[in-house]
Amino acid sequence: MPVVYALIIGPGLSLMLDGNGKLLNVLLSRLYNGMDSFPLMALPFFIFAGQVMNVGGVTSRIVDFSQSMIGHRRGGLAQVNIFSSMLFAGLSGSAVADASALGKIFIPAMGKGGYSRSFAAAVTAASSVIGPIIPPSGIMIMYAFVMNVSVAGLFAAGIVPGLLIGMALMATTSVLAKKHNFPIANERASWRVRVSALRKAFPALLAPVILLGGILSGVFTPTEAAAVAAFYAIIVAVYFTRLLKLRDLSSIFVASALQSGVILLLVGASVAFGWIITVSDLAGTVSSGMFGLTDNPYVLLLLLNIFLLVVGMFLDAGPAILVLGPVLAPGFLAMGIHPLHFAIVMCVNVTVGLATPPLGLVLFVSAEVAGERVEKIALKMLPFLGVEILVIFLITYFPVLSMTLPRLLGYAD
C-alpha cells in the first residue's frame, strides 16, 4: 500500500475502533489544511527548477567544470562524480534527481574508463545523498513545516554536514584509488580550459549563491527563493545554455505538477497522522519508553541514530521525517537538544537511508541505470556508507559542526 494511504487509513481505523467516527471529518480537514500552506509552495518551485536545469543541459556543464578541476587525479572520474554531486545539490535538492541525472552521465563513462559498473553505481548512489543535505532541500522544507522550525536555519545547518560527507567520500575514493590502481580520467587541464569550463558553468554555479545568499541575508523567504530559482532556471536554460525551448516547458510543468502533487498529498496525510499522534499521546508513550531505558543523553543519541539508520533501510526519507519527527522530537527537545540540531541529525540520517539496502531508493535508481544487481552495488558501497555514518555521529556528538553557521546568522540561540 502506498504510504500516503496508510497514513490516512491507519488513523481512520483508530478513530472508528475507539468509537470516534464523527472525528473522521476532522481527519480529512487536517489532510487539506496540511497542504494549504504558503511555505509549502517552495516544494513545487524547487522541483520545477531542478527539472528545467536537467533539460537545459546545466548538469553536463557542471560535470565538465568538475572534470577540468579534478579529473587528472587517480580515480578521477569517481572524484568528479562526487564533486559534481556536491555542486548539483545546490540546484536540485533531490537525491533521486542527482542519482538519475548524474548516473546517466557517469556510470557509462566510468564503465568505459576501466571501472566496474557496480562500483560506478555505488559511487553515484553514495554521493547522491548529498543532494537533500546541502540546501536547498525538499525534505528540510517538509521537516521545517511539520515541526515548526526555521527553514533558513535548517538550510544553514545543512551546509557543513553536506560538505563533510562530500569530502569524506572523496577521501575514501582516494584511498581506494591507490589501493586498486584506478585509472586517471584525463591529463591535468590547463588554466585556460578550466576558465573556459568555469565560464560555461558559472550561471549554474551562481544559482545556489543567489538562493542561499538571499535566504540567509533575509532578502527573500525560502518560498520566495524557490520562485526565484524557477525563474532563474528558465533564464539560464533558455538564454545561456540555449538547450531549452519554450515549447518544452509544458511537459516540464506537467512532470513537476505530478511530482509535487504526490509530495504535497503525503505532507497533508502526515499532518493528519500527526494530529492522531498528538491526541493519543503516542509521542509521550514512545518517549517514556525510550527514556525509560537510560537518562544518559549520549546513549539516547546513539539509540536514536541506530533507530533512524534502521528505519532508513525500509522507509523513504520524506515519510520517515513526517511520521517520526512528531514522535521522536518532543522527548529530545525536552532533554535540552536544540531543535535545529535534532532536525539536522534526523534529516541526514534518513537521507543516508536512501542509499542503504534493502529498500534504498537511490540504490534502485543507480542499479537501473547501471544494469547491475542491487546487492552487488550495495557490497561496493560499504566503505562509502561507513564514512557517511561516521559523519552522522560527528554532527550528533559535536553540535558545533552544524550549529555554528545558524548561530552566526541568528537562527539559533
CA(first)-CA(last) distance:
42 Å
What oligomeric state best describes the polypeptide chains here? single chain
H/E series: HHHHHHHHHHHHHHHHHHH
- Level of helix content? over 70%
Structure report:
This protein has 19 helices and no strands. It has 413 residues and is mainly α. The two termini are 42 Å apart.
What's this entry about, in short?
This protein has 413 residues and is mostly helical. It contains 19 helices and no strands.
Task: Summarize this structure as a short list of keywords or feature phrases.
mainly alpha, 0% strand
Write the layout of secondary structure elements.
Layout: H1 3-17, H2 24-35, H3 42-55, H4 58-70, H5 76-92, H6 95-112, H7 117-128, H8 138-147, H9 151-180, H10 191-217, H11 222-240, H12 249-280, H13 282-291, H14 297-314, H15 317-334, H16 339-352, H17 361-370, H18 374-397, H19 400-408
Helix pairs in contact: 1-12, 2-12, 3-11, 3-12, 4-5, 4-10, 5-6, 5-7, 5-9, 6-7, 6-17, 7-17, 7-18, 8-15, 9-16, 9-18, 9-19, 10-11, 12-15, 13-15, 14-16, 14-18, 15-16, 16-18
